[in-house]
Write a structure and sequence with these properties.
The protein folds into 2 domains: 6-54, Helicase, Ruva Protein, domain 3, CATH 1.10.8.420; 57-204, Dna Topoisomerase Vi A Subunit, Chain: A, domain 2, CATH 3.40.1360.10. The protein is built from 9 helices and 7 strands, in the order αααββαβαβαβαβαβα. It has helices spanning 6-15, 23-35, 38-54, 71-74, 89-96, 125-133, 148-161, 186-194, 199-204; strands spanning 56-57, 64-65, 79-86, 103-107, 139-142, 167-170, 197-198. The strands form 2 sheets. Strands 4-3-5-6-7 form a 5-stranded mixed sheet.
Length: 205
């Protein structure tokens, strides 16, 4: 791809680093920005800089937050003894959109994936186990995607906390095997949360 401007080329190269954005899409986005009033680009730049410099991680659930504790963890109407284990903020947003869950979350920050070099030590698994050990949790809901990596992560956590004999459940398989939560429709995901099943039953298949 030949560029008439080095500035244009640099901008396209940076935008194309984003996941799912190829060079042609990046070029279209950059040209769109050039056509907009300059303040629009400034607002975008400022928003991204504020995000990168000021965003925090909730010290309790590890969700992305503007403050030390996220709004969900600070909400006194939530049930702190019921914790839903998810991969990242996209899953929190997907479940919250169903209005069917009133507990708290624990964001792992990923899934165990030996192929990608991601092990248990790379995720927020140890803090979750500590919550269970401290008696903070009565029910743990596994809400990772129905993939090999998701199932492996669920099983690893289950084996770590099995001796504490707390209630463990997993979202019902209204979510198809291999599907990511963020792509599930709200009704299906909501029913999967409400109709969750014991984790042991999911292992027996």
């Amino acid at each position: 791809m030949d560029f008439s401007s080095k500035l244009l080329e640099n901008a396209v190269n940076e935008v194309s680093r984003l996941p799912g954005i190829g060079k042609r899409t990046a070029l279209r986005l950059v040209l769109h920005l050039l056509k907009q009033p300059s303040e629009h680009t400034q607002y975008l730049s400022q928003a991204l800089l504020h995000l990168r410099n000021d965003v925090k991680t909730c010290e309790k659930c590890h969700n992305i937050s503007d403050t030390v504790l996220c709004d969900i963890c600070k909400n006194p109407k939530r049930k702190p003894e019921v914790v839903c284990v998810v991969e990242d903020i996209r899953d929190v947003m997907a479940i919250e959109s169903t209005s069917q869950f009133n507990g708290l979350y624990h964001v792992l920050g990923g899934k165990i994936s030996p192929i990608e070099g991601i092990g248990p030590q790379d995720l927020k698994i140890e803090p979750l186990i500590q919550k269970v050990e401290n008696g903070e949790i009565k029910e743990l809901i596994f809400a990772l995607s129905s993939t090999m990596e998701g199932d492996t992560t669920n099983f690893y956590i289950y084996k770590q906390i099995e001796k504490f004999r707390i209630m463990t459940s997993t979202i019902a398989r209204g979510i198809s095997v291999g599907d990511e939560l963020e792509y599930a429709d709200e009704v299906t995901l909501g029913r999967s949360i409400v109709n969750r099943i014991p984790f042991e039953q999911s292992i027996r298949g």
